[in-house]
Amino acid sequence: MTRSSTDLGQLARIVLLLPATIIVVVGYVLPSLVLAALSFGIVPGVWVFSEATTSHYMRLLGDIYYLRVVGYTLFLGIVVSVLTAVLAFPVGYYLARSRSRLTSLYAVLTFTPLAVGMNMVTLGWMIILGKTGFINALLLQTGAINDPLQLLYGWGAVIVAMVHVVFTFMVLPIEAVVRQIDPSLEKAARILGAGPIRTFIEVVLPLSLPGIAAGFLIVFLQVCGAFVLPLLLGGQGFTLMPIAIWEQITVSFDRSFASTLSVALILISIVVMLLQMRIMREKSLV
Predict the structure, then answer these.
(1) Which of 181, 209, 261, 275 is the most buried (most CB within 10 A)?
(2) Residue 154: left (phi > 0), alpha (psi -120 to 50), or beta?
(3) In this structure, are residues 223 and 161 in contact, taking their beta carbons and an 8 Å threshold?
């Protein structure tokens, strides 16, 4: 290969990467820098670094209300991720292993939340869980209850709806990893005397951990960044970080503290991502 052809190849790679680089810089890097500057009290257009302050971060760390908001957000992310993993694994395994004609139907049903969208799913759950909704109507007609139950505006409604919304994001990586597991490994374990449960625990589950970990990370980030669903279904019982950010912008008109909360949410996501990568490296699965 001549030097001119090598130069042309490098130029072609640069040209191909240029659009993606511009999108990343303009769409992610620059907004993140502006967000970080605002969180330190540096207003765009007045870039005087001597005016930077950490008071917003001290307010976040010193106010029990906002620490509780961070805790609620982490709690919801972990609970929804664990529940989704437990519920999605059988579906992902079935889609990867089954040769039934019904597999296509189950796949379509699994992808329905993505097709419908979070806003429509939220409205659907508001109708189902409302005092005049399907569940209360069914319970009233069967005589199980005398008065409608308050199913909306609480942790239960938010968790159930979030699991429904992010279910697909857990099924997809699990199915992809299970498809790569050689079925002969399961057969070998059964031949050697392992029962179905032991085969699952000692063979299938360890080999599926990369898919579960990837799904867990995606679901966790989706839940921690959700806004519309917790706002409409959660009521006033608790506040999550996206809602707190929205309140600071629209109610308190405090863009700097809203930026501080946003930076904190981004840092939490990065820390969770790094922890997951480290754990998976130690297990030598990725």
Answers:
(1) 261
(2) beta
(3) no
Distance between CA atoms of residues 112 and 129, nearest Å: 19
Do the Cβ atoms of 69 and 239 come closer than 8 Å?
yes
Is-contact 84 167, C-beta < 8 A? yes
22: enclosing H helix or E strand: helix 3-24
The predicted-structure confidence for 244-286, as pLDDT tens digits, reads as follows: 999 998 988 888 899 999 999 999 988 988 888 887 776 654 4
Query: What are the helix (H) ranges across 143-283?
Result: 155-180, 183-191, 196-199, 205-224, 228-234, 241-250, 255-282
Structure tokens, 246: 């929205």
- Residues 75-112: tens digit of each pLDDT: 999 999 999 999 999 999 888 888 877 787 878 888 88
pTM for this model (two decimals):
0.84
* 254 burial via Cβ count (<10 Å: 0-12, 13-18, 19+): middle
Q: What are phi and psi of 155, to 5 degrees?
A: -60, -40
From CA 99, how far away is CA 254, in angstroms rounded?
A: 56
d(CA 193, CA 174): 26
Other Cβ atoms closer than 10 A to 83: 18
* CA–CA dist 158, 230 (Å, integer): 6
Give the helix ranges, DSSP H, for 63-154: 64-97, 103-116, 118-129, 134-142
Cα 230 from chain centre:
13
